[in-house]
Amino acid sequence: MASWTPSSAVIPTLILLLSLPLLFFFLGPKILSPRQITISLPEELDDLSLFHKAIAMDTSNFSTHRRHRLPSAKSHLTTTLRRPKIAFLFLTNSQLHFSPLWELFFSNVSLKQYNIYIHADPLVKIPPFQGIFKNKLIPSKRTQRSSPTLISAARRLLATAMLDDPSNAYFALISQHCIPIHSFNYFYNFLFDLGRLSATDFEFSSYIEILDSEPTLPDRYNARGKNVMLPEVSFDEFRVGSQFFVLTRKHALMVIKDRKLWRKFKLPCLNLDSCYPEEHYFPTLLSMQDPSKCSHYTLTSVNWTDSVNGHPHTYHPAELSPQLIHRLRESNSSYSHMFARKFSPDCLNPLMDMADSVIFKD
Prior knowledge:
Main location: membrane
Radius of gyration: 24 Å
InterPro entries: BC10-like, Glyco_trans_14
Strand order of the largest sheet: 2-1-3-6
Membrane topology: Single-pass type II membrane protein
Number of strands: 9
Keywords: Glycoprotein, Glycosyltransferase, Membrane, Transferase, Transmembrane, Transmembrane helix
Strand content: 5-15%
Structural class: alpha/beta
Largest sheet: 4 strands, mixed
Distance between the termini: 92 Å
Number of helices: 12
Shape: globular
Subcellular location: Membrane
């Protein structure tokens, strides 16, 4: 039997030391990157139950409206939606730092013109919501960046709002970092401007960014693996856009009815650097199903000039001024931006000081 000597352990030790860099190279990203949250079957079934209820109620209401349709398309619209409402859907994983500003936004506005719904990650400790946000929290589930859980949360908000009030005609998805940059009345009158409807087309449009020529499009398309999106979504059909949108009830219904595209977009990503499911799913779905009634532009202003790790520029108090608010309202379309992001929490007081004289002075 060979006897052990110190030199006999040298070679295995050297091999181990030399192999460590290789192990780190291949396994490091998986070890260092956060584990993606998966959507369990019970969670999926729970959401499907909610969606089915909302779809059934909407179908029933639509059948009732058809039986009482008036000859004039515009008259029918105004009769069907005698008091159309905007559902504000707040998607957050922290407290709503700008709730006092939103309180001013909704002040002196009839409750018959809007509803509020909040989806907050249940594993994050958030102080109880107060004021108009009290009791507005919907049954929520965990969310995580670069995962399909953000799609699920938005669909959950849409379905809840549709089921809660048939008068919700528009659905505005908002983040905790968003602020209003126009008054409520300005926003409301813009959305429900009958002058933009023709005698033959009485459908309002949704305001969602839909982009098809971004340089990162191939990487985003293949984030789950090469050609994994086929056959449901070809590369030519794949679109990207802003996470935050304002959808009509018709398009909200399309979103919660969808099963085909969801089967692909709920798959976990292999390349997290190019994976933003919530920025891909909604633009792709609506572009494939009803592109002519989508503006292809967002109503939320975002500054991407110096983005960091996929996050847009964050405004701080030193940057705030009336000129900034006016600049944020400017858009590439014929209409103004209605919201803006992203703002640090300490911007609240300066924004409150400008609220009446600048922000809500249209």
